[in-house]
Each structure stands twice: as structure tokens, then as C-alpha cells.
Amino acid sequence: MDNSYKFRLCCEIERIIFLFANLRPSHMNRVLGKVSFVFRSNLVKIKPVNINSNKMVSVEQVVENNKRSLEIIESLKNELQAIRGELIARKKKELVNENAALKKKVELARSQLIALETKNGKIQITVPGARSMCTNASGENVPPPPAAAAADKEPKAPKEKKAKKEKPEGAKKDAASVAAATELPIDVGRLDMRVGKIIEVGRHPDADSLYLEKIDCGEEQPRTVVSGLVKYVPLEEMQNRMVVVLCNLKPAKMRGVTSEAMVMCASTPEKVEVLSPPAGAVPGDLVHCEGYNRQPDAQMNPKKKIFETCAPDLKTNDALIACYKNAPLHVPGKGNIVAQTLKNVQVK
């Protein structure tokens, strides 16, 4: 066997081994069986050459062996080519089926997304010329989603909001003047002063200069009142005393206790005296002022400062009578409100 033939045979064997390494076990067995068959059927026809023989090797014998070997190699090539084609066709078929399954899944997910968006009120817009893939296995026509049908309809024109009618400036001024006319003048008639009786009194638990009182004002429940009179009036004189109470102040907390009224007093920096109702007055009697209509607010608005406006004109006169702009404060049919000794001083 010449050297060129040996080289070609070795190359083909290496190529066959490489192809074997990339075959599945079943295909490898098939090729090995084919190789075995070919070698059994053809190898016997190849006559071995005795290189140790002293005889000259016949040229015809070498050519015959070479030809047989080439036929074996060609047969193996054809077999491997057939197997490769079969593998490619099978893989192609698998990929086609997998691609079709993926398309169905994508179309199903798209249909579900459209349904969810339609349910949540998102308008679907049909793209002109777009074709939807059919995901129905039976091949029946699938109706378009309701969102697409709704998008085809012409949108309704939005309703125009009615413009608010603006009131003329003259009407605004008239309303303001009416409100000003209905507002009562700030005077003593806006103050709700009544006769009261202190039914319980004691020191404030958190302040040594304050009294904590329960005063009967002729109502269902006595009012809680906090007064800063400890330095001026002994505790014994406060108990069961008849007083004049301002009842329509806004309740305010004083050292943690809500005070619901104020005891009216004649006052100087050095001395304070509690005003006394006339003899015969009872809790709940209303205090009036001559020349002023009694129209008290249910509760005075602190922002309007009604009491602060009236306070400078609340004084006692030479006769110890409490007055507003020299008009006496009194309980009708029973007498005037008076101080004990303080003349011409502020009442507060």
C-alpha cells in the first residue's frame, strides 16, 4: 500500500470519528452496523500484500486494494450524509412546531391584555391594515374585542359646562349693606347679665389666687366660674352670696378648669368689690339698662370684641349704682345693681 493511499485513509477515518462524536447513540449504532457490514462484505476482497516477500508487489493488486478501500469510504460518506439530512429535517420540524406554539401563547396573552384594558376603561385603537392572528384551534373566525368595536364609534362631544352667572357689583353692595343693617349695634344690650347665687366655692387646686365657684343662674345646671378674688374677698363672704354674672362670654380654660361665666365687680388697682343685685332678686333674673334694648348674643364672638368695646363705659356713679354711659343697670321692678363703697370706678 503506497504512502498517499495510507494518508488519505487516515484522514477519512479521523473525519468519521469526528462525525461519530456528534451523533446520538442510536445513530452511532446505525453507522457502526453499516461500517461493520461494509468491511465484512468488502474486506475479504482486498488481498493482503506481503511486504516481506521477496517477490515484486503486483501493481494490479495495489490498485485493486485501493479501489476497494475507496468504495468503503464513499459508502460511509453517503450513509453519514443521509443521517445528517434526517437529523436536520427532524430538528426543523421541531422548531416549526415550537414556533407555532409560541405564536398561540403570544396571541392568547394579547387577547387577555386587551380584555383587561377594556374592563378598566382603556380605549383600544384599531391600527389600519393590521391583521390579527387567529388563536382558535378549530379555525373559526374570532370576533374582534368589544374595545375595538367601541373605538370605531365616533366619540361623543363633551358637554359644555354652564357658565356661572356672576352677580352684578350693585347686588353685592346691596347684600353687604343689608348684612350691616341687620348687625346689632355694639352696646350693653348685647351683654347677657343675670342674677346668680354662689352655692359652692373653694380655692382653685392649681392656683392660690383663684376661687373655683358653682353659681346658680336659674338654669338646669349651675355654672362653673373661676374668679381672681382671693386677695380681695374672703372665702366666707363668697359663700351663698348673690352676684351679677356675665353669661354669654365664650368659655375659657383657666389653669385647666373651664370657666363658663364672669362675676361682675367694681374695681380699682387696690380694691375690688363684688356688685350686689337688689333685694328680692332671685337667680336667673335678667339685668337691663335704661335706654338700651336687651338683645344679647347667644355667645359673643371674641373677634368682634363686644365686651371690650362696652367695658370702658361700664362704671359706678356717685350713688354707687353700676351704669353704662350713666344709664343705671337694674332688675326691672326690683332695683338697681350697686357696689358697697367704690364710686366712679370701672365695672369689670
TrEMBL record:
Stretches assigned to coiled coil: 59-119
Keyword check for Protein biosynthesis: yes
This protein's UniProt keywords: Coiled coil, Cytoplasm, Protein biosynthesis, RNA-binding, tRNA-binding
Biased composition (Basic and acidic residues) is annotated at: 151-160, 166-175
- Give the signal peptide as a residue range, or say none if absent: none
Main localization category: cytoplasm
Give positions of region: Disordered: 136-176
Gene Ontology terms: biological process: translation
The keyword tRNA-binding is annotated on this UniProt entry: yes
**Compartments where found:** Cytoplasm
The Gene Ontology CC terms held by the record are: cytoplasm
Q: Name one GO molecular function term.
A: tRNA binding
Residue ranges of domain TRNA-binding in the record: 187-288
* Protein name, per record: tRNA-binding domain-containing protein
Name the gene behind this protein: 106087052
